[in-house]
Amino acid sequence: MYKPMRGITILSLINTLFNIGLSQNLQTVNILFINDRTNEVAEETLNVALNYIRRNPRVGLMIDGLYSVKIGGDDASAILETLCVNYNASIRNNKPPHLVIDTTINGVASEAVKSFTAALALPTVSASYGQSGDIRQWRNLDGEQQKYLIQISPPADLIPEIVRSIVVAQNITNAGIMFDDTFVMDHKYKSLLQNIPTRHIIAAIDDTTSIKLHLTRFRDVDIVNFFVLGKLSIIKSVLDHANSNKLFGRKYAWHVITQDKGSLKCGCSNATILFVKPEPDAGSREKLSNLRTTYGLTSTPELKAAFYFDFYYRSLLAIRSMMNSGEWPTNVTYTTCDEYNEENPLPRRNVDLRRYLKDMTEPPSYAPFLIDTNGHSYEEFTMRLEKVTVLNSQSVSAENVGSWKASLNSPIVVKDAANMTHFSAVTVYRVVTVLQNPFMIQVDDEDGKGVKFKGYCIDLIEEIRKLIGFEYEIYIAPDNNFGNMDENGQWNGMVKELVEKRADIALGSLSVMAERENVVDFTVPYYDLVGITILMKKPQTPTSLFKFLTVLENDVWMCILGAYFFTSFLMWIFDRWSPYSYQNNRNKYKDDEEKREFNLKECLWFCMTSLTPQGGGEAPKNLSGRLVAATWWLFGFIIIASYTANLAAFLTVSRLDTPVESLDDLSKQYKIQYAPLNGSSAMTYFQRMADIETRFYEIWKDMSLNDSLSEVERAKLAVWDYPVSDKYTKMWQAMKEAKLPNTLEEAIERVQSSKSSSEGFAYLGDATDIRYQVMIDCHLQMVGDEFSRKPYAIAVQQGSPLKDQFNNAILLLLNKRKLEKLKETWWNLNPERIQCEKQDNQSDGISGVFIVIFVGIGLACFTLAFEYWWYKYKKSSKVANTMNPKQMAMSKGGEFTYPVVPTFNTTSGMRSRSIIQGFRRSVGQSSPKQK
Questions:
Q1: Which residues, in sequence order, are CB contacts of 275 under 8 Å at separation 6+?
Q2: Is the pLDDT of residue 907 over 50?
Q3: Which positions form S-S bridges (predicted)?
């Protein structure tokens, strides 16, 4: 027990003697401390610094006169009056300040202090905000003044510079910056992102309402990169509001920057945030911990408190060093405010306080100081960059991705460049569209869990995306309309989505219209001029292989057939009974070369062949038969000529049977109803044309009935016919009576259910819609030329920078002929395209005549088979019937048999029997009866 007590006593004695020795070399320093009323941390830290000096005599300082002044407001005269009162009091008390410590922030108070110290030539160290040129009263200091009028930027003045470093590193093109009262950005509005092509807004956070307004404002102007500078509590509030507004995701990037130490907290459901916070140097952490535990340096934020401690301590040490080295003037003169003469400024020479601050070797409590010119002197602390992932309001990870050394132009040092690239906001645009084949088609995803889009416009936006570099999200307009304005000036469809800032791009077959250009911006057209046209049911001409028979009515064909048989029978009768016919008067015509017996078969053949170019052959010999033949020839000539003429006319008329060929034809008839889609641009066109006609009529009527007109003027308006057409007025009335279809499917169904092309329903709509329906349905046709033609273009929000970017991309695609290839792909090479048969084929009416050939050949083959059978089987039976029993017995016994004598087909039975008898006598045999 004794020895330890003795050791402690000796150690205490040595320490006391050492402190007594140091106290003999203490330098007495007077201070004029000028602080901003709102800067409580600076005042609290001053007490810690004075306590540290007092409790450590080895520092060699003793603060004798301390005059503390709190100022604020915008009244420069009152501020100067307060400063002069305290300054004059220090002179009266024989304790003039060796050093003025200025911790005002900015504004009138800070400028008043700078003017006061510069005028009275008081050595001053200031921690005011501002870079070179921002402090107006110290802007034009001479060489001597720059030695003792020193400004060191506080940390909160440097931290915003990390925004510039992040923007440059990530190549960010837009930024929304919010800050609270822990940062001062008045002098940063222009300088922070100066000479950087980044569209940005800097806004102060006053309360919760201001947070909502700023987020809405940023979203309205397409800002997707957010920077929040403030306390952790303010940051949490901002992130919570962003989560409720769905401002997290691939499209957005969040950077939160604070002076506080601690963890990031927010009520975010799913967010990835770049969290930037200060981190003390490794060599200063022990001293900082000692100041915090031993001397009560507990003011927050810690970075700010540590800065002010080093700022005070180093400034006082610099004064002590100057005194110890003998460079502090011994005959310093001070002039009261009342004695000050502006025309005779006080000289202050050889007070090189800046050099002593720069050469200071005292270890810092947080980070080293860099002393250079005013605006370029600061504490070189380090900011730690963490990528924080928040899920369901819980921080699940905090990955250290890099660091930043405080400076006015310091780059970010990252551990993995790819990590920062993946974190940065992806430029994602919301694209609103309308389903329309083949421009925009919705199909099920391959995995069956969602939907995707394809079509002409998808290929177009993909080509543009490759040139510009962005991502996009597509959604369908709630009402699936392109965009029309009602009577109250309210929009619907895709245009409404752009006007209300819910979409960035309107993609589809959107026509460029004057009223739309008043609220949105259009790019250069990407598609040809497209107008309104007519969709009708295609005339269905009945096709038949025997269509050539339909030229004449069935009754006519039956009459012709009856006349043929009647004439043939009549000719046979005349030839049989006429005494001058060949068969009844053979001797008369025995010398004629042509001998033809007109039995019934020959008469049928004669009448048939008479109707052919081959002719009927030899005519009857008798005059009555020839008259019948001549009559038949004349009849046949007339029938053939009539059939030929009717066939040609029938084929021609069937091809030219088109009841409607234009809009005028449609408006002049009453059998076909017609109408556009309800709410479509086509409906707007007809409605407005009808309104214009009505207005013109009212104007003309008012002019005609104007009593103030003279007789000459009235005569000039007197016309017999109404000078303004009412075509569209009548058409619009007819459309309303026909009831406008609400969907394209309904319109197509009404067209398809039409009875014919001359009776039913015709749809008036966008030419691309109609052309696509004709391409996939052979029963439909597009009638007439397009009218009210307008180009297709992509629409963006009014004033959006996307307009110029898309214009350049579309023009480049046009020069590369990419747009023509897209049109070829989705129209001519579309897999849904159907190859329709041509209805107006000229050979269709006579193609069936080839059937006649095959039928005739088939009938001839059948007849040949019948003839062969008849000859083979009937001939033997006839020969057997002509033999008597004796001949049959002789033939069986091997004796001579009579040859079979053919019988002749004559009309006289007597003549047949005489011929047979004569034949038998010639062979030496008698008739059966004689025998």
A1: 256, 264, 385, 386, 387, 388, 398
A2: no
A3: 84-337, 778-836
Share of the chain above pLDDT 90, in %: 38
Whole-number Å distance between alpha carbons of 126 and 149: 8
The pLDDT score that the predictor gives to residue 3 is: 38
**Binding-site positions:** 511, 516, 681, 766
Angle, alpha carbons 405-406-408 (nearest 5°): 120
DSSP 775-800: HH-TTEEEEEEEEEEEEE--EEETT-
Residue 835: pLDDT band by 50, 70, 90 thresholds?
confident
Q: How confident is the model at residue 1 (pLDDT cuts 50, 70, 90)?
A: very low
List CB contacts of 906: < 8 A, sequence separation 6 or more: 912
Per the omega criterion (within 30 degrees of 0), is the bond before 301 cis? yes
Phi first, then psi: what are they for 317, rounded to 5°? Answer: -65, -35
- Residue 285 one-letter amino acid: R
Q: Which residue has the tokens 């140091």?
A: 22
Closest CA to 255 of 282, 283, 233, 224: 224
Under a CB-based contact definition with an 8 Å cutoff, are residues 304 and 406 in contact? no
Cα distance between residue 308 and residue 297, in whole Å: 10
Tokens of 675: 């109408």
Query: Which residues have a Cβ under 8 Å from the Cβ of 519 and sit 6 or more positions away?
Result: 491, 495, 498, 499, 798
pLDDT over threshold 90, residue 125: yes
The answer on pLDDT for 6 being more than 50 is: no
- Check residue 540 and report its DSSP letter: -
Determine if the peptide bond prior to 438 is cis (ω within 30°). yes
Phi, psi of 212 (to 5 degrees): -60, -45
More confident residue, 751 or 540: 751
Identity of the amino acid at 363: P
| pLDDT greater than 70 at residue 110 | yes
For residue 725, give every residue at least 6 positions away whose Cβ sits within 8 Å of its Cβ, in sequence order, or none. 693
String of DSSP letters for 383-421: EEEEEEEEETTEEEEEEEEEEEE-SSS--EEES-HHHHH
DSSP, collapsed to helix, strand or coil, labels residue 548 as helix
Residue 525: pLDDT over 90: yes
Mean pLDDT, rounded, of the chain: 83
Alpha helix (H) ranges present in 656-680? 663-668
Q: What is the 3-state secondary structure (H, E, C) of 27-79?
A: EEEEEEEEEECCCHHHHHHHHHHHHHHHHCHHHCEEEEEEEEEEECCCCHHHH
Q: Are β-strands 369-370 and 378-379 bridged in parallel, bridged antiparallel, or unpaired? A: antiparallel
* pLDDT (tens digit per residue) in 229-257: 999 999 999 999 999 988 988 788 999 99
Parallel/antiparallel/unpaired status of strands 471-476 and 428-433: parallel
Share of the chain above pLDDT 70, in %: 86
Burial 245-261 (b: 16+ CB within 10 A, else e): eebbeebbbbbbbbbbe
Token pair of 920 as six digits: 């038998």
**CA–CA distance, 903 with 895 (Å, rounded to integer):** 24
What structural domains does the chain harbor?
23-154+297-378 (3.40.50.2300), 157-284+381-419 (3.40.50.2300), 429-530 (3.40.190.10), 567-653 (no CATH), 663-791+818-828 (3.40.190.10)
- DSSP annotation of 254 reads E
> How does DSSP classify residue 826?
I
Cβ contact 842:543 at 8 Å? no
Q: For residues 518 and 514, what is the distance between their CA atoms, to the nearest angstrom? A: 7
The pLDDT of residue 914 is 43
Going by C-beta distance under 8 Å and a sequence separation of 6 or more, which residues neighbour residue 59? 52, 53, 317, 320
- pTM summary value: 0.58
Extract the annotated binding site for L-glutamate: 511, 516, 681, 766
pLDDT interval class at 17 (50, 70, 90): very low
The Cα–Cα gap between 193 and 197 comes to 8
Give the burial class of 493: count Cβ atoms within 10 A of its Cβ; 0-12 exposed, 13-18 middle, 19 or more buried: buried
Q: Is the pLDDT score of 8 beyond 60?
A: no
